[in-house]
């Protein structure tokens, strides 16, 4: 009986060691390898100094802050929609934080875990104002530009079929820049992508005011960061970084007041900030893991407003991405 127990303990220890592999590798390397887009304003794009910024970028910085207490310890790898999954599967990146839709096939057959929905989105259509279109239901027979490796082609086909519309020519391109260039040059009548991406693309066009996003949203596009199957500790860490950002906003803990909030007597704040309990140990970190995150990036609302909110060039209202108690559906699981 003792031999069986010792063997069981040994197997559990071995499993724990295997599951801790990614965090150990990241710590040994001294940085998080993060896959991002090849340039999507507001979400992940470099400036003229090659400094990356955006909502997806800040999420990676939050992970680095949780682990290293330094949001700069991230290496960003720009990836096309076609190449993003290969990079994650191969281990070239530790986390993919790049406008990627959570679908069943990606979550099961591709071997990935989505850590949450960092941005609730939906697919739409961008057209020239000169066409005089008011609805996507007027797009029958139109030529449509899409990016290869996305779910956009299937969504367009489903939309046309469900509305008994004649599907036009769908033209796929390898990168977002190639797709935008084709649309602007007149190669196609319509550009289709997630609505947040269309807002960013519109800013890249020579005369943004000459183009309009049609009102219909034709799909659900829950966008979120993902990691490989098989490393539960790393999955938990990335997932709880996301929840910490949401919980901090709900509890009113901000980048400016986090040091003051450490002295809060609110039980929820105390557990989040590590003054009550040792919840960080469950994800391989110290008790003040969330303090480091919030100091580095602010809470979810601060990240959103800074990168894509109404005061930015994208000017996107919170909508579904507001907190659950403010009319949206963003919801952080409780720290307890």
From TrEMBL:
One of its GO terms (biological process) is amino acid transport. The keyword Repeat does not apply. The keyword Signal applies. Residues 1-20 form the signal peptide. Belongs to the bacterial solute-binding protein 3 family. Coiled coil: none annotated. It holds the Pfam family SBP_bac_3. It comes from Xanthobacter autotrophicus (strain ATCC BAA-1158 / Py2). Keywords: Signal, Transport. InterPro entries: Bact_solute-bind_prot3, SBP_3_CS, Solute-binding_3/MltF_N. Residues 31-261 form the Solute-binding protein family 3/N-terminal domain. CDD domains: PBP2_BztA. This is Extracellular solute-binding protein family 3. SMART domains: PBPb.
């Amino acid at each position: 009986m003792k031999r069986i127990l010792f063997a069981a303990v040994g197997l559990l220890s071995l499993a724990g060691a295997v599951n801790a592999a990614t965090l150990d590798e990241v710590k040994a390397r001294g940085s998080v390898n993060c896959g991002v887009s090849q340039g999507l304003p507001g979400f992940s794009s470099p400036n003229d100094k090659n400094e990356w910024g955006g909502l997806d970028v800040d999420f990676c910085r939050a992970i680095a802050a949780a682990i290293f207490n330094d949001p700069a310890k991230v290496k960003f790898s720009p990836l096309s929609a076609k190449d993003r999954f290969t990079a994650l599967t191969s281990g070239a990146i530790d986390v993919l934080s790049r406008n990627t839709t959570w679908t069943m096939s990606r979550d099961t057959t591709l071997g990935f875990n989505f850590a949450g929905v960092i941005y609730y989105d939906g697919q739409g259509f961008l057209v020239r104002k000169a066409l005089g279109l008011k609805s996507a239901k007027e797009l029958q027979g139109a030529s449509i530009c899409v990016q290869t490796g996305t779910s956009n082609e299937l969504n367009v086909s489903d939309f046309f079929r469900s509305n008994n519309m004649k599907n036009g020519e769908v033209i796929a391109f390898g990168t977002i820049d190639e797709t935008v260039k084709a649309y602007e040059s007149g190669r196609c009548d319509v550009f289709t992508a997630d609505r947040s991406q269309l807002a960013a693309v519109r800013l890249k066009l020579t005369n943004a005011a000459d183009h309009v996003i049609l009102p219909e949203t034709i799909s659900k596009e829950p966008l979120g960061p993902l990691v490989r199957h098989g490393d539960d500790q790393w999955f938990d860490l990335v997932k709880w970084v996301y929840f910490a950002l949401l919980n901090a906003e709900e509890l009113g803990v901000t980048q400016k007041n986090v040091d003051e909030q450490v002295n809060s007597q609110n039980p929820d704040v105390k557990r989040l900030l590590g003054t009550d309990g040792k919840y960080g140990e469950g994800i391989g970190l110290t008790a003040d893991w969330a303090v480091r995150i919030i100091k580095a990036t602010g809470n979810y609302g601060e990240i959103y407003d800074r990168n894509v909110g109404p005061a930015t060039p994208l000017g996107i209202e919170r909508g579904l991405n507001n907190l659950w108690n403010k009319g949206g559906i963003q919801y952080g699981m409780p720290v307890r």
